[in-house]
Design brief:
The chain is of the alpha+beta class. Helix content is 46%, strand content 14%. The protein has two domains: 89 residues, Phosphorylase Kinase, domain 1 (2-Layer Sandwich); 220 residues, Alpha-Beta Complex (Aminoglycoside 3'-phosphotransferase, Chain: A, domain 2), CATH 3.90.1200. The longest helix is centred in the middle third of the chain and has 18 residues.
Length: 333
């Protein structure tokens, strides 16, 4: 079985960082198997538990500091977010130590009772971040609406060539995903002009079941804020629907979608255009991205399940594109 774990920084260097926070106390660490983009460890200091994150190179020390400022703002507004006990830089990577939060991730498919509290929490987060003074520069429109069918199809061709030297399971997994993306892109209708008028807001940008901990039917913690920043709120909403309201066969459970979006809209306000383009924001941003396939081909084999789910989801969304765009807009009114 193919497997891999991220390790940016030697564990003994990370242990030195923790030991400096807790001098003269016994520290032990073990890898935390969840998480796809950062190096995560569970840390024990006596009877206390923490989570240590060494962030991927894309997350600079400056970006992490701004993220922590945003998280503190959210906590001040009643959002359950674990704040860092210590932070710094180790081996050129931003590093932070967080308190361990008791809870479980919602089930991927059997999570209907959590749709209301999860939708409500996303709405509360968006309403809270509306008042946050984010210090990072807003991206240009071309960076927001970055989809380009011609260059994307060329990228698919290049990735297909790179598969020739890969193991059979890798070739077949990625090829299925590339087929799904390629066929969906071929339907056309990728004009960008309508998106120019969308407001660019501060969003969490990664709100889904694996970044939420629950206890019973209550959201206990919202995790992993490193993607938080400028974005389209419609993307945040629709991407979370695609993650949180999906059935095992790759289709959306519209009863769950209705409950989730109904709870969201009671907490956060969207413009008419944001509602109208919400589905397209999530659909396009996901469809024109091969990040999971790239990570998989680089050796992060835990991405396989993610890729298989995408291979089922995008043909389904493409087939019902117009219908779903109208349904999502209506549920957000």
């Amino acid at each position: 079985m193919l497997c891999s774990m991220l390790a940016f920084v030697p564990n003994d260097h990370l242990k030195e960082f923790v030991q400096a926070v807790f001098p003269a106390r016994r520290v032990s660490m073990r890898p935390l198997l969840s998480g796809l983009l950062n190096q995560n460890l569970v840390v024990r200091v006596g009877s206390e538990r923490y989570v240590l994150k060494a962030y991927r190179p894309k997350v600079s020390l400056k970006a992490m500091r701004e993220m922590h400022r945003m998280m503190a703002h959210a906590v001040g507004k009643g959002i359950p977010v674990p704040l860092p006990v210590a932070s710094g830089e180790v081996g050129g990577h931003a590093v932070a130590l967080y308190p361990f939060v008791e809870g479980t991730h919602p089930s991927r498919y059997r999570n209907a009772p959590l749709m209301r509290p999860m939708g409500e929490m996303l709405g509360r987060i968006d309403a809270t971040l509306e008042t946050f003074k984010f210090r990072m520069q807003k991206p240009a429109f071309e960076d927001m609406a970055s989809w380009n069918p011609e260059s994307f199809l060329s990228e698919i061709v290049s990735m297909r060539r790179s598969l020739r030297s890969k193991p059979k399971v890798v070739r077949e997994t990625v090829a299925r995903s590339l087929d799904a993306h390629e066929n969906a892109v071929a339907i056309g209708g990728w004009d960008k002009e309508a998106f120019r008028r969308l407001p660019v807001r501060v969003c969490h940008n990664d709100y889904h079941i694996m970044n939420v901990l629950v206890r019973g039917r209550k959201v206990a913690a919202v995790l992993d804020w490193e993607k938080a920043g400028w974005g389209w709120r419609g993307f945040e909403v629709m991407r979370s629907v695609m993650f949180n309201c999906r059935m095992a066969r790759g289709t959306l459970d519209w009863d769950r979608v209705k409950t989730y979006l109904g709870a969201y809209r009671k907490q956060a306000a969207l413009t008419d255009l944001e509602r109208e383009l919400a589905f397209e924001c999530g659909f396009r941003k996901g469809l024109f991205s091969l990040w999971a396939e790239k990570e998989y081909l680089s050796g992060q084999f835990q991405m396989r399940d993610n890729i298989e789910r995408r291979s089922r989801l995008y043909p389904y969304l493409a087939k019902h594109r117009d219908e779903f765009s109208e349904r999502v807009a209506e549920l957000l009114r």
